[in-house]
Amino acid sequence: MTITPIIMAGGSGTRLWPLSRGNYPKQFLTLSGQQTMLQNTITRLKGLEHTPAMLICNEEHRFIAAEQIRQLGVKHSGIFLEPVGRNTAPAIALAAFKATEQGQDPLLLVLAADHVIDDVNAFQQSVAKAAELAAQDKLVTFGIVGNKPETGYGYIKRGQQFQSGFVVDSFVEKPDLATAQQYIQSGDYYWNSGMFLFKASRYLTELKAFRPDIYAACEAAMQVQNNDLDFIRVDKAAFEACPDESIDYAVMEQTQDAVVVPMDAGWSDVGGFAALWDVSEKDNNGNVFKGDVKAVDTKNTLVFGEDKLVATVGVENLVIVNTKDAVLVAHKDHSQHVKAIVNQLKSEQRSEVTFHREVYRPWGQYDSIDNGERFQVKRITVKPGAKLSVQMHHHRAEHWIVVSGTAKVTNGDKEILLTENQSTYIPVGVIHALENPGKMPLELIEVQSGSYLGEDDIVRFEDRYGRVEGK
Hints:
By secondary structure, the chain is of the alpha/beta class. Helices cover about 20% and strands about 35% of the residues. It is built from eleven helices and 30 strands. The chain has a six-stranded antiparallel beta sheet with strand order 20-21-22-29-24-27, with no helix packed on it. Strand 2, helix 2 (about 60-70) and strand 3 (about 75-80) form a beta-alpha-beta unit. Helix 3 (about 90-100) packs across helix 6, helix 3 crosses helix 7 (about 210-220) and helix 6 packs across helix 7. The radius of gyration is 24 Å and the shape is globular.
């Protein structure tokens, strides 16, 4: 049977702050190797016979997701945009309804976009075994063969053997350490990976039987589809009315046809910095360094240096993360509690929870270099062929100075070309646009001045990316 991968890319990854932020969470980060976690998830499908993957993500991440897939040069079956987060059971239901629209009934391979899997061959072998079971109307989950007691994962208890898998005896919540040790020693328990394989129709049948409210809400949401570029939007009001529920509670714990297939493939969900240290390549002192790092008498320490030199002396078991606008220092054994810092920042409505200093847009990116009373300075990069929206600001004027590349600028009723070291001034209230007509990235410095410099001071007249708000 045909396999259609469904990649869930809607998580927030708060325990990896300040690397992971609300508008740029961990699935879009390059944490190990040369590719992002999303790109690694897609790449490990190579060699499996499958149709192009379908992606499910949040509205605010749509352009990041589309760009990262484009960089791989692979096709996809559409990017579903959830109007609001409603957990995994409804998200998978949307994908299942879409997959069966034309009368087809593929096997849905449900994957998270933010997992690390070291042994791709072992992963694919487990998927092949699961496909045989799913073709027999079983709902398959993948159980990770644990090598140590983990209190951060849920567990699956296996029952009697069924062909190449085991009947699921029960799903178990996250245990305490002593219980986790018993689970691992018994050999009857697996870590719950959150990956699944089943027929699209079979999932919908079981969802309708056990959670008809979720089924009905998702069916209603699919009645109104709006295709925009790579993106598929569904009826917002109908989906908002859908209960928030995981696939485990809604279906897998209820069905009589749940089967677990063991997977021993070097899996991790990288749920925090200690897990990231675990899965990363270390030096002779057990250190993981990324960026410009100098260390003396340093052991078992993780350092991420983004834009400046980080030096350590006489420390061990630390996590040190330096980004352009935040520094985190934590003991590795306490790094799971980073979420408490994120909650503090949220309560104070700090922008660092949601935004990096560097912000990605469909046309490129900008870095807020400096700001103060009545001014802000940005370094803007526009991709070849890309264009910012035709827009106007009520409260700010802008100076643009080209650093490299060529800028095609609409400034009121004039259209001009600017090259390196040339500039233009755009007064308050003047309609303007910026485009890169060249083959190389366009880099420029933007100096804003005015009484209000928020990103919501924008009136957009025309936009090739279909955006309603935001630059």
